[in-house]
Design a protein that fits this description.
The structure is a homodimer of 289-residue chains. The first copy, chain A, is α/β, with parallel strands linked by helices. In chain A, 35% of the residues lie in helices and 20% in strands. Chain A contains 10 helices and 12 strands. Chain A has a 5-stranded mixed β-sheet with strand order 3-2-1-4-7. In chain A, strands 10-9-8-11-12 form a 5-stranded mixed β-sheet, with helices on both faces. The two termini of chain A are 13 Å apart. At the A-B interface, strand 9 and helix 6 of A face strand 9 and helix 6 of B.
């Protein structure tokens, strides 16, 4: 059995799963302070006899095992959580291998193991919700580098009729600043879920998301793109996004995935809302090897 | 000894090098027809007793060893060269392992082995010339995917005072369409080299290149960015590009490479004009293992 923690800014979801990614038990714990939240996390796993633990966390996080702050959430604007030592705290209580990565990298890994990218060796997982996060796998390996990627903040072209200035504290009108849930609410004065039947909302949203996907395709060439998160629950977004991606690429990428099978190329998570939790199981499984 | 071919649209540069990336002999052959050019290439290597051969080629190329067209240049607009079987033609004459990749991936590998990214396990190599090509290494491996990346065609925001419509036949005003050598000439009516002292030319150029680099940093998080090609011979472009990159990231990437050491982070090729040829040697060396 493996343990998984999906560490989010609102809630921590913890679960126990087997090597097939089946979740046998799970619990949701609100994200308050590290002391309070993590002690409940420890309580959940105690006595569960897990072989290994996988943590997919909100960030930014330190993924470099050579650093003294490896396993920490670093400089988050989330109150109380700057410099929270997730891995260290778990190590204190559980003498098992611990895999650690970003929430979206974990979700990408989960989707590749058991979800919408099963059988492939590359994919990209994007979540569009309170923020925009993206994780990627290339040739079977999670893409890391100097730090972890922060693809949600790439620059996109503004729509000429979009007067909203963008809500990212760092970049103003980067992708996250223009297309995350709070941007939709700030621009239109209502939450996305209340705007479900307003086509202009989703056409503009697709305009931004598609630009980002095109850039990811050109940079990483992933074999599947998986879009999750609260905003993507608006299922009518998918055809709009697909259409824009094909239009923007304009025949440049000569591959059947784009030219003929775009419906199978840009898809919803195969694991539904469990991509992150299953991803933690996949991280644990890798850590146990 | 290893053989290397830098296959370009204007010329093929062939060389013999040792395991330290030292080029001992080289020759330049004009790119005319595959029959003519490749027979001269074969002639050069004949009797040279190479252990392995590495080819970095202009593209698009087929890099998937499972495909019948592996080792081909595929659908290039370059006359005569669509479906040219580079690897197959070399295999006919030389019974040695052959490494094959894009020209820019080869250059990135060469720069990591012996150039500006030596000792690192990730880097990005961008050439700005007749076109814009980009290759990347992540955790020691060349980034491939569904096809090879085509990062030179990512979308950037237009400068509001730039009236030039862009010259990319697929995307109009993508990065290559706005910032490659021919775009400079079309916009300003003179070649870049004749515009060396016109600051507005290079500020606009930096405006576009920096946007692309910011997106690459956010997507791939490479440990060094290496900029080569004819346009980057304008050395005053480097400080302009660095300044714009720092400004656009606006403190978001909390890493000393950006915050303090940008001069060492965005650099010229350590191998000068030999990045591609040395890259071929590196590909050969890998193929020989």
């Amino acid at each position: 059995m493996y343990g998984s923690i999906e560490a989010g800014g609102t809630k921590f979801v913890c679960g126990i799963g087997n090597e097939n990614g089946e979740i046998l038990e799970e619990i949701t714990i609100p994200t308050t302070t590290p002391e309070e939240t993590l002690s409940q996390v420890v309580e959940f796993f105690k006595g569960k006899e897990i072989e290994a633990l996988g943590i997919g966390s909100f960030g930014p996080v330190d993924l470099n095992p050579d650093n003294p702050t490896y396993g920490f959430i670093t400089t988050t604007p989330k109150k109380h959580w700057s410099n929270a030592d997730l891995v260290g705290e778990m190590k204190k209580h559980f003498d098992v291998p611990i895999g650690f990565d970003t929430d979206v990298n974990a979700a990408a890994l989960g989707e590749m193991e058991w979800g919408a990218a099963r059988g492939l060796d590359s994919c990209l997982y994007m979540t569009v919700g309170t923020g925009i996060g993206v994780g990627a796998i290339s040739e079977g390996r999670i893409v890391h580098g100097m730090l972890h990627p922060e693809m949600g903040h790439i620059r996109v072209r503004r729509h000429e009729e979009d007067a909203y200035e963008g809500g990212c504290p760092f970049h103003g009108d980067c992708l996250e600043g223009l297309a995350a849930g709070p941007a939709i609410e700030a621009r239109w004065g209502q939450k996305g879920i209340e705007l479900a039947d307003k086509m202009e909302v989703w056409e503009l949203e697709a305009f931004y998301i598609a630009q980002a996907l095109v850039n990811y395709i050109l940079v990483l060439s992933p074999k599947r793109l998986i879009l999750g998160g609260g905003v993507m629950k608006q299922k009518h977004l998918f055809p709009l996004v697909r259409e824009q991606v094909v239009k923007l690429l304009n025949g440049y990428i000569q591959h059947e995935n784009i030219l003929e099978k775009i419906d199978e190329y840009i898809v919803a998570p195969g694991l539904g809302d469990h991509a992150g939790l299953c991803g933690g199981i996949a991280l644990a499984k890798k850590a146990a090897i």
